[in-house]
Design a protein that fits this description.
Helix content: 55-70%
Distance between the termini: 34 Å
Structural class: mainly alpha
Order of helices and strands: HHHHHEEHHHHHHHHHHHH
């Protein structure tokens, strides 16, 4: 272990996180312009639609859209029916986290989602479901390619897509190498999924409208997840004693997942409702720390999760060689001899279960796991405090705007909040934030 391995970081005193990971980008960073002065507060948001109803609306829209596309593929050739079949099956289920957050971002920014009986209500709901569904297709494309990159055999407890097409090759008695066919087919289908994501978002804009900010944010989502994926691939071949190993881990965590899974869906939904950049900055103060807590939890599950709950083998991140924040924190706490063992085993796909278990014990006993749990708690608390500030602003607005306000954070206080929510919306956001930060699957 080298002297560089001490990995001293520029830390924020309140959380111990690297300064670059401790807060979201400012409005000026996102737009390349100075942040505007605060706009008038958005309307009070008494409640948010349930995750279940949002997931149902998005799933129905996705199913309809992909069935339409599947018919088009089959009209080109009967051999192309496998594309539509596989995409419909692959996009079913899942947590629908990104669609829910896009929908809520729209509502938090004052966007009204009516029902079929209200004027324009059905159209707005359809447009939102399409925009949210487009994020699911982008996510599906990323997962398909991610499983190829990681050589993963399973996804959500089922064979990964490239393994499914390998099995199709074998079952159909085709010539050539089945594994190579599976890889090739999945690369193409992942690309198709990405293209369909753009097509569905374009349909959403026909109903919801489009602005420069919406287009920029949509482009940023695509850019960040792809750049984050490259950084992840690079990190897996970086020596564990690299001086930037912890910083690299935070970059991958933030750009590959935290932003595009939580922060950016919220921002995109808010922009579709016409939010200005100061309101988006408030949403970032909630979304980025929550996204980081979400991905840190994913890293914990990738090491010590229950395979029955996660759908992935135990310790899969060790066999895949993931240089996560959890691994980086462990590397600073173990002995030189233990470090050599961990460095040698990371990325070995043939590790025995006993070898993996020994690594997990090392990670736990060293305090690395405890440190990450503290990071999760700190980032979850930041997100929860923002929600409470929004609720305090909403309560003051509905009673006495001159009353003293006790809730607030360094990023946004109740007195300056542009977003104002009721107790039902507060409960829903707090419950969702806890579920993301402390989930078991």
């Amino acid at each position: 272990m080298t002297d560089d391995q001490s990995m001293t970081r520029d830390e924020t005193p309140e959380s111990g996180l690297p300064a670059s990971a401790a807060s979201g980008p400012s409005a000026s960073t996102r737009a390349g312009q100075p942040a505007p002065t605060s706009s008038r507060p958005s309307p009070l948001v008494a409640a948010l639609d349930s995750p279940q109803s949002i997931a149902a609306a998005v799933s129905a829209q996705l199913e309809s859209f992909l069935a339409e596309k599947a018919a088009e593929f089959e009209s080109i050739s009967p051999d192309a029916d496998a594309i539509g079949e596989s995409l419909i099956a692959f996009t079913r289920g899942g947590k629908r986290i990104r669609p829910v957050l896009l929908w809520w971002g729209f509502q938090l920014a004052g966007g009204a989602v009516g029902d079929a009986a209200s004027e324009g209500g059905a159209e707005v709901a359809t447009g939102l479901a399409q925009a949210a569904g487009s994020l699911e297709l982008l996510h599906a494309a990323a997962l398909i390619h991610d499983d190829l990159i990681d050589n993963s055999d399973t996804r959500r407890g089922e064979p990964a897509l490239h393994r499914q097409f390998e099995a199709r090759h074998r079952k159909s008695g085709l010539h050539g190498d089945g594994a190579s066919f599976g890889v090739s087919a999945s690369i193409v289908i992942g690309d198709i999924c990405l293209a369909l994501s753009e097509e569905l978002f374009e349909r959403a804009q026909e109903t919801l409208g489009s602005t420069r900010l919406v287009r920029e944010l949509r482009g940023t989502v695509r850019r960040d997840v792809m750049v984050g994926q490259y950084l992840d691939v690079l990190a897996e071949v970086i020596p564990l004693d690299d001086a930037r190993i912890a910083e690299r881990a935070w970059e991958v965590l933030s750009f590959k997942s935290a932003k595009y899974s939580v922060e950016q869906p919220l921002l995109l939904g808010a922009a579709l409702a016409g939010a200005e950049e100061d309101l988006l900055a408030e949403i970032s103060d909630f979304g980025l720390p929550l996204g980081q807590a979400f991905q840190l939890r994913d890293d914990v599950l990738g090491i010590a999760g229950d395979p029955q709950a996660t759908g992935k083998p135990a310790g899969d991140d060790i066999r895949e060689g993931k240089r996560t924040v959890l691994i980086a924190e462990t590397a600073t706490r173990i002995s030189p001899a233990q470090f050599e063992v961990l460095a040698a085993r990371l990325g070995d796909p043939d590790l025995s279960d006993a070898d993996v278990a020994e690594c997990v014990e090392m990670i736990t006993a060293s305090g690395g796991l405890g440190a990450v749990e503290e990071f999760i708690a700190a980032q979850h608390a930041k997100a929860a405090a923002i929600v409470d500030a929004w609720a305090a602003a909403g309560e003051a607005d509905s009673t006495d705007s001159t009353a003293p306000l006790s809730a607030g954070t360094a990023e946004v206080s109740a007195a300056s909040a542009s977003i104002r929510i009721g107790s039902a919306a507060q409960d829903r956001l707090r419950e969702f934030a806890k579920a993301l930060s402390y989930r078991t699957s």
